């Protein structure tokens, strides 16, 4: 099977669809797995790579049966909190967006892989060197490893090559370039660009966050919003205000209804030819090549301001501390790091890859064109940095506060300076609480 997907519109649209059928299939597979012996139950996402875990990966892995419950993106976080905080042993393995990952590790809900393996008579070898190094840091906490990455993502610029060429423009590398391109390509038929003002993650991280990343120097382990000492730094040099103003510059070149756009709407309007450019997370754009403008899109690193820095995020897998099958879970994770499991996910259509040999393979990149952004990291000298504010246990609430204030600044309800002052004060309250 190739790398393209038949799922419509976008990864996030797919993630919003019902998980009922997947749950029925998981229950069916569980019967066979139990008959075989050991079985690992996965609290799963509703994505292509997650489907592959309980399908192709499960078929090839011989150590234990793999079953799971698939959840749409919005429901997954709440399900994870309920299951883990209550000490439920229903799920042996838990997949998590890296934005949420510190919460289960800090609260003791996840078991440290290092501890599990130290207690094993014959511990398997973890081959983390096979994975992209930017993807393997999120699963470490207080000096111990808790899991492995599943997929790796980054905000990218997706653009219509034909429209950019017709306007006589090069691919934007700076935010000045981007503003110029949006203005020149904007017409009554095709918007110059699209923002995602209607989604918390989409607007706070994809829109505002992508602009924030290049404005000040950020160390690879930091995220540009909070430093390692939990200090609020997103407007330390006025960069938060400047990032809002960059969004306001291109707001006039957005399509009608942009105030309500989240991931699915943004991806859909690009796919259908209603906008010329978008900057958002790479896994959101899976469906572009399934639409009427297939082959007309280019993909590269997001524009930047002063420093070549880009967020790298993704999803990870952890071991539930309440699981009765921790050793089997550790064995499965070790097998995954050999690489074959990731290859199966790629063969199923996954394009947000973290197996380094896939990322380095031009044939793979040609079939999964959003990977071009990671290839362009090398040519542009782009440094990966962390996603904000992943180190904070209450990361979702911090993001919500930032989203509300950034949105107020972009849509004119507040001046950008006031929005950032209010965001800083409110984030400090969340951190203190």
TrEMBL record:
<dbReference type="InterPro" id="IPR006311">
    <property type="entry name" value="TAT_signal"/>
</dbReference>
<feature type="signal peptide">
    <location>
        <begin position="1"/>
        <end position="35"/>
    </location>
</feature>
<dbReference type="GO" id="GO:0042597">
    <property type="term" value="C:periplasmic space"/>
</dbReference>
<dbReference type="InterPro" id="IPR050490">
    <property type="entry name" value="Bact_solute-bd_prot1"/>
</dbReference>
<keyword id="KW-0813">Transport</keyword>
<dbReference type="InterPro" id="IPR006059">
    <property type="entry name" value="SBP"/>
</dbReference>
<keyword id="KW-0732">Signal</keyword>
<comment type="similarity">
    <text>Belongs to the bacterial solute-binding protein 1 family.</text>
</comment>
<dbReference type="Pfam" id="PF01547">
    <property type="entry name" value="SBP_bac_1"/>
</dbReference>
<protein>
    <submittedName>
        <fullName>Extracellular solute-binding protein</fullName>
    </submittedName>
</protein>
């Amino acid at each position: 099977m190739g790398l393209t997907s038949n799922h419509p519109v976008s990864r996030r649209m797919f993630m919003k669809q019902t998980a009922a059928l997947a749950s029925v299939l998981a229950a069916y597979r569980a019967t066979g797995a139990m008959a075989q012996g050991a079985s690992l139950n996965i609290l799963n996402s509703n994505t292509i790579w997650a489907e592959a875990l309980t399908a192709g990966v499960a078929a090839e892995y011989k150590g234990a049966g793999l079953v799971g419950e698939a959840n749409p993106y919005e429901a997954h976080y709440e399900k994870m909190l309920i299951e883990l905080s209550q000490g439920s042993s229903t799920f042996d393995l838990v997949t998590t967006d890296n934005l949420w990952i510190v919460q289960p590790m800090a609260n003791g809900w996840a078991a440290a892989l290092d501890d599990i393996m130290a207690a094993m008579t014959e511990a398997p070898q973890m081959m983390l060197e096979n994975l992209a190094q930017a993807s393997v840091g999120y699963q470490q906490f207080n000096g111990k490893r808790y899991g492995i990455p599943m997929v790796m993502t980054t905000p990218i610029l997706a653009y219509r090559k034909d429209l950019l060429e017709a306007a006589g423009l090069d691919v934007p590398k700076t935010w000045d370039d981007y503003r110029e391109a949006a203005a020149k390509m904007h017409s009554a038929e095709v918007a110059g660009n699209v923002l995602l003002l209607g989604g918390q993650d989409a607007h706070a991280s994809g829109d505002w966050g992508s602009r924030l990343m290049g404005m000040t120097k950020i160390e690879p382990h930091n995220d540009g919003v909070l430093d390692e000492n939990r200090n609020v730094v997103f407007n330390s040099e006025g960069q938060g205000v400047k990032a809002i103003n960059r969004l306001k510059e291109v707001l006039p070149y957005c399509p009608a209804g942009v105030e309500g756009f989240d991931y699915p709407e943004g991806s859909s309007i690009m796919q259908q030819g209603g906008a010329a450019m978008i900057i958002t997370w790479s896994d959101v754009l899976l469906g572009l090549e399934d639409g009427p403008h297939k082959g007309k899109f280019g993909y590269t690193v997001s524009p930047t301001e002063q420093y070549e820095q880009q967020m790298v995020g993704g999803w990870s897998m952890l071991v539930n501390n309440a699981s009765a099958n921790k050793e089997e879970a550790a064995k499965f994770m070790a097998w995954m790091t050999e690489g074959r499991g990731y290859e199966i996910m790629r063969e199923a259509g996954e394009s947000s890859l973290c197996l380094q040999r896939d990322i380095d393979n031009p044939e793979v990149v040609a079939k999964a064109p959003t990977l071009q952004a990671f290839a362009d990291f090398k040519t542009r000298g782009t440094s990966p940095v962390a996603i904000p504010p992943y180190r904070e246990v209450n990361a979702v609430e911090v993001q919500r506060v930032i989203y509300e204030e950034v949105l107020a600044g972009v849509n004119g309800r507040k001046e950008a300076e006031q929005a950032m002052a209010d965001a800083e004060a409110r984030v400090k309250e969340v951190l203190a609480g």
